[in-house]
Design brief:
By secondary structure, this protein is mainly α. It has a two-stranded antiparallel ribbon. Helix 7 packs across helix 12 and helix 8 crosses helix 11. The protein is elongated. 22% of the residues are buried. The protein binds heme C (2 copies). One heme C binds next to helix 8, helix 10 and helix 11.
Length: 280
């Protein structure tokens, strides 16, 4: 037993199970060094950085560091990078921005948030469209797909108008004929197309007119997409679009953003939308 004592140091005198003894050795040196290093670090840290809570404030530390000032410094760096681009935008047309690759890339990135906040609710995230709201990712444009067309759409808003053709204008059989021809992409061969005046708005080639926002009736890209597309086409012909004389008419209004967004924001969105789809 006395040999064991020498090997392990002092014991408390408690021995269990004949061999298991509780020792009173000091902790190892490396451990004590660690302990002292830790409290020295705590003192230095709390002298240097804001640390201890007081009643209505806190110790400020000698470094003068605050998380707010660090945040402001970071923000300023970001703004300096942005300013290089932002300062140019007000004096440039959307078309000129589009032509400058570096600026365009910057604008597209910064317009993403604007699009999400203002446009995605109707046009879907990424411009995929929603029932009743046109997709912006395709290259089928009601109002034209040039950068100027798009900028004007966003600035002034749009409200396509097609009179209801049900009731006195067309019989059910005629609506059927026209709808099937549109569904098959062959409407210009249907004599009723010219006879009933569709041609006046949708054009001799049936491709629509950008000035009116009249849909292309030959490309099978549907403005009013539905599971039963044929029924949807009949409904449009019967009740028209934004026709105040028919309570069942389709509503289709793109709000105006003039005054709600700045000119620069509208330019950014025009560039963004233009590159989303096949802008022209
Ligand atoms: C309240 C819903 C709504 C919101 C919000 C909205 N739009 Fe529209 N937008 C429409 C509708 C509806 C149309 C189609 C108008 C029509 O059929 O006459 C449209 C049409 C458009 C068109 C024309 C598409 C074409 O084929 O010519 C563009 C471009 C457009 N929107 C961009 C935007 C942008 C950019 C924003 C965000 C600033 C936005 N819209 C916000 C409802 C909305
Ligand atoms: C006064 C102009 C005008 C006349 C006349 C007119 N349309 Fe239209 N039509 C429009 C406009 C504008 C739209 C697109 C509305 C919108 O999205 O804002 C449209 C949309 C449509 C659509 C929806 C297409 C889709 O992709 O979902 C169909 C179908 C249609 N028209 C068929 C006809 C037929 C058939 C006639 C003739 C009987 C006719 N239109 C006459 C202006 C007209």
């Amino acid at each position: 037993m006395s040999e064991d004592k020498n090997r392990y140091g002092q014991t408390t005198g408690h021995v269990w199970d004949e061999t298991l003894a509780e020792l009173t050795n000091p902790p190892p040196k490396w451990w004590m060094l660690g302990l002292h290093a830790s409290w020295i670090l705590i003192v230095l840290y709390s002298l240097y950085y804001p640390t201890w809570p007081l009643i209505s404030s806190h110790t400020k530390g000698m470094a003068g560091w605050t998380s707010i000032s660090e945040f402001k410094k970071d923000m300023k760096e970001v703004q300096d990078v942005r300013a290089k681009y932002e300062n140019k935008l007000p004096g440039m047309s959307a078309a000129a921005i589009l032509a400058d690759n570096e600026l365009k890339n910057y604008v597209v990135r910064s317009a993403k948030v604007l699009y999400g906040d203002n446009c995605a609710a109707c046009h879907g995230s990424g411009g995929a469209g929603n029932p009743g709201f046109p997709a912006l990712v395709d290259d089928d444009w009601l109002y034209g797909g040039t950068i100027e067309n798009i900028e004007q759409t966003i600035t002034m808003g749009r409200k396509g108008m097609m009179p209801k053709m049900g009731g006195n204008q067309l019989t059910e059989a005629e609506i059927d004929k026209l709808a099937n021809a549109i569904y098959n992409g062959t409407v210009t061969k249907e004599p009723l197309y010219a006879a009933k005046g569709c041609i006046g708005c949708h054009g001799p080639d049936g491709k629509g007119m950008a000035a009116l926002g009249s849909a292309n009736l030959t490309d099978k890209i549907w403005r009013f997409k539905a599971k039963d597309q044929l029924a949807s086409i009949k409904y449009t012909i019967k009740h028209g679009v934004n026709d105040p004389s028919d309570p069942k008419t389709r509503n289709a209004e793109m709000p105006s953003w003039k005054g709600r967004l700045t000119d620069t924001q509208i330019k950014k969105l025009a560039v963004y939308v233009h590159q989303l789809g096949g802008g022209q």
